[in-house]
Amino acid sequence: MTLSPGIVALLVSSLLVSMMLLIAAKEGASIIRHWNMTSGSELQLALERRTYLISTIVAIFLPLQLFSLFLFINTVDGISHLFTGAMCAAGTLKVNRFGYPTLFLKMVTFLLAGIWLILNHADNEGRDYPLIRVKYWLLLLIVPVLLIETILQASFFWRLRPDVITSCCGALFSKGSGTLASDIVAAPVVPVAVAFFGIIAAAIASGGLFLKTKRGAASFGCISGIAFITAIIAVISFISVYIYELPSHHCPFCLLHREYHFIGYLLYALLFSGVVAGAGVGVLHRFKKVASIKGPLLQMQQKLTVVALASFATTALIVIWKMASSTLRLFT
């Protein structure tokens, strides 16, 4: 096992978050079964006091889970020099079979945690806690995913061996490697670029329409999710190539390096912010008729829409800037 401050921080924080959310899920299950806002029983009063404490605890620890995604990527990238063949996080994640599944689950828990925090904030706006069962059902979904992620992450770090020869990103993100990434690399660039800019434009138009008419929130949420997936594909297909100015270099992890001004962190932070905010608008739309939070809910949706629009628009502007300033020309 290889140890570094980042690895220790990830293991400790994952264990701590898992323990706290397990406790919260246990209490949440009790609240789901027994919650009755119209009752004045001692049990109901106890549940009301308990839910405030539980929500506060979860709202404190879930942001750690959000941060852990970027810490994980930074950590595995930082130890890549320990493994023969690895040039960045791509090679480190390939050292054993737990690397990429851990990264995938961290992305999933990031999205779920973001949605939970949005629902929790909306629920706290109502005096009758109208979304209390919804948010605790979501918590019950998050906990097993988080536990699996914690186990996979521990297994990944435990089985890191410096004597292992791994693959470099040039081999992993190249044509003919027989992976999904190779299929993306092999895809024609023009259709991918058109899809990327088209879906970003659609997201901006959809969000603008919602801000103007208060309609189309669900559509905006769906388009935001599609925009996120399309953007990740575009990063591998052509965005990274323009930033590296190398037509054969498609790695989405080398963007995190100093020589590229850590632009990857900015791009990925914008994309994750955009998809969480956009999806949050769509999720909150399902509860627009709840009387006790109708006003605050609309205000939340508007703020989230602005965040999503700013994130997607900034992403597009960065990509356009890098394409315009690059010496590489893929489109002639």
Task: Give an overview of the whole structure.
Keywords: Membrane, Transmembrane, Transmembrane helix. The chain crosses the membrane at residues 6-25, 52-73, 103-122, 134-158, 184-211, 218-243, 263-284, 304-324. By secondary structure, the chain is mostly helical. The chain has 2 domains: 1-167; 168-331. It is 73% helix and 0% strand. It is built from 11 helices and no strands. The chain has helices at residues 5-34, 42-78, 89-93, 99-124, 132-158, 169-172, 180-186, 189-213, 217-244, 263-285, 294-325. Helix 4 packs across helix 10 (263-285) and helix 8 (189-213) runs antiparallel to helix 9 (217-244). The model has no long low-confidence stretch (mean pLDDT 92).
Unreliable residue runs: none
First-to-last CA distance: 49 Å
How many individual domains?
A: 2
Q: What profile does the largest beta sheet have?
A: none
Architecture blueprint of SSEs:
Blueprint: H1 5-34, H2 42-78, H3 89-93, H4 99-124, H5 132-158, H6 169-172, H7 180-186, H8 189-213, H9 217-244, H10 263-285, H11 294-325
Helix pairs in contact: 1-2, 1-5, 2-4, 4-5, 4-10, 7-9, 8-9, 8-11, 9-10, 9-11, 10-11
Transmembrane segments: 6-25, 52-73, 103-122, 134-158, 184-211, 218-243, 263-284, 304-324
Protein name: Membrane protein, putative
Keywords: Membrane, Transmembrane, Transmembrane helix
